[in-house]
Write a structure and sequence with these properties.
Layout: E1 2-6, H1 11-22, E2 26-31, E3 45-48, H2 54-62, E4 66-69, H3 76-81, H4 83-103, E5 108-114, H5 137-156, E6 159-165, E7 167-169, H6 187-197, E8 201-204, E9 216-217, E10 219-221, H7 222-237, E11 246-251, E12 257-258, H8 259-270, E13 276-279, E14 288-289, H9 294-300, H10 308-327
Parallel strand pairs: 1-2, 1-4, 2-3, 4-5, 5-6, 6-11, 7-10, 8-13, 9-14
Antiparallel strand pairs: 9-12
Length: 328
């Protein structure tokens, strides 16, 4: 069975591609490399093209039995500053991908969504029934594509699983691939880099209504996310036609950690201090986001296996390995 992994040279897409290949699937990567890395695509067939390019999409989709869609701009702050960029790629171009998949006869799609679709939830932990009220353009763009998948399921019989991630983190335990963003905006690699370089880590907001005044997030290992994608694909392969056609699932651990807790964990992992400074809150940042992952466990038999120390130690090992390769 062949899977087209769109955005497969990115952080989560590349880890999922390896999980799929290990499970025996044929994997084709499709990525324009605007934020993805050729290095993360090594060992796979890579079609270098944009999801807005229907002429290139058509023959690629014709070779696939199912689609995994990771190709999105994904920086909350940037989406507030440049919403046009986000709606152009995450909505307009994504609809080109969806329509091309439908025309190619693909009826199974796993979509990389986000807890950003919930906005500022009224209750914690967050269930799939929580109102979807995004507070930034990134979350709004993800919600639009979720709505499109639901409509296409009703109208055309498309089967989809929409996976709402909480905070992806960590790296493959092999040390071969990991988080590789430019610019890097995620807290864990920034905190680890600060211990190594002595540069100052910027903390945005210390006056939230949380235990220490900093934002609280649910951090989930990238390989646990990859496993959930594979299980979602297997759910869609099920012969049970009575199964739900369009399904949304939260992917998280069910436990939150504050920014300061992450900083302290990075210091513990590396044995070095993190210099830090506090800046004003960023627009579009909810104070607390913690998943209720019970539905994913019930439907997919999936739970996150790795805890925060394992997440941070794998990220640190990846950063050290990458540093050695640069120095060689």
């Amino acid at each position: 069975m062949a899977i087209l992994v769109v955005g497969g040279a990115g952080y989560i897409g590349s880890h999922t591609a390896r999980a799929l290949r290990h499970a025996g699937y044929d994997v084709i990567l499709y990525d324009n490399l605007s934020t993805g890395s050729r290095r993360l695509a090594q060992g796979f067939e890579l079609i270098e093209a944009d999801i807005a390019d229907a002429a290139t999409l058509r023959p690629a989709l014709a070779r696939a039995d199912a689609l995994m869609h990771f190709a999105a701009h994904a920086y909350v702050g940037e989406s507030v500053e440049n919403p046009r960029k986000y709606f152009r790629n995450n909505v307009t171009a994504a609809l080109t991908l969806l329509n091309s998949a439908l025309e190619a006869g693909i009826r199974r799609i796993v979509f990389s969504s986000s807890c950003a679709v919930y906005g500022v939830p009224r209750q914690i932990p967050i269930t799939e029934e929580t109102n979807r009220e995004p507070v930034n353009p990134y979350g709004a763009s993800k919600l639009f594509f979720e709505n499109a998948l639901e409509a296409y399921s009703r109208a055309y019989g498309l089967r989809s699983v929409r996976l709402r991630y909480f905070n992806a983190a960590g790296a493959d335990e092999s040390g071969e691939i990991g988080e590789l963003h430019n610019p890097e905006t995620h807290l864990i690699p920034l905190a680890l880099a600060a211990t190594a370089s002595g540069r100052e880590l910027q903390i945005y907001g210390s006056d939230y209504d949380t235990q220490d005044g900093t934002c609280v997030r649910d951090y989930i290992h990238v390989n646990d996310l990859a496993d959930a994608h594979m299980r979602a694909l297997q759910y869609l392969e099920s012969a049970d036609q009575n199964a739900v056609q369009s399904l949304a699932l939260n992917l998280g651990t069910g436990r939150g950690h504050s920014v300061l807790e992450i900083v302290e964990a990075a210091e513990t992992a590396t044995g070095r201090p993190v210099r830090r400074s506090v800046r004003p809150r960023r627009a579009g940042d909810p104070p607390i986001l913690i998943a209720d992952p019970a539905k994913a466990q019930s439907v997919l038999g999936w739970t996150a296996k790795r805890n925060l120390p394992e997440i941070i130690s794998s990220a640190w090992a990846w950063m050290q390995s990458a540093s050695r390769r640069r120095a060689a």
